[in-house]
Amino acid sequence: MPDSASKLALRISRRLAQHAFKEILPLRADVGVVSFTFDDVPASACVAGAQALERHGARGTFYVAGGLTDALEEGKPCHSREQLRTLLAAGHELGCHSYSHIRCDTLTAAELEQELDRNAAFLAELGVDPLTLNFAYPFGAYAYNAKRICSKRFRSSRITGGGTHEDYADLNALKTHRLYDVHVDAENYDTLLQRTVRRKGWLIVNTHDVEDPPSRYGFTPERLEQAVAAALAAGCKVLPVNAAIDYLLQYAAPADA
């Protein structure tokens, strides 16, 4: 366990990171955007999660930790290589979630680079272009040094929690709403979706397993499909993270530029 001094240092480091290494994406699109993302990529997310999106013609982003391949997490089976290839073939996006699913805020620069290199190599074997990789911090644990390194390596980096993006997004610290079986965020999905529609913002949601019953970090297939349908019915674009960035960049420049 970190001592009190280490905890204080981490808090200071994270506070500094909030203001450093920003890459601002103005949000000026005609409609709101919703991105559905899956952390750790349990096997159920590869099947039921992907199907919930595909039934509505949508695709998602699956943040993969190569070290979890064919393993168990929270008692749930994780993805196989074949399932990841199936996701890619169906048009879904694979992102990076470190290799060992380890907190990035306490690693040295060399340790973090090694983790990211190892996962990049794993994803490259599956056919993922390392130049278009997006990242999600395991446990949402980021800090100054981690953000500095990840800002140079990834098209975007995602934290955990924080709600929807309005007016702009920091691509190096993207926020999420957690679609978990146990409600953990201050506002619910429906409220954030309405705000995303009204402000033409970008709402990124994340979950883990997709089954019934789900783990405390997961969501049922029925509720996930309802969330996808609600976003589309509200007039939002439902896009994976890479496609969302591409779409939003089309509108990012001022009209008089």
UniProtKB/TrEMBL annotation:
Pfam families (UniProt xref): Polysacc_deac_1 (PF01522)
Domain NodB homology: 32-239
Keywords, sorted A to Z: Signal
Official protein name in the record: Chitin deacetylase
Species of provenance: Herbaspirillum hiltneri N3
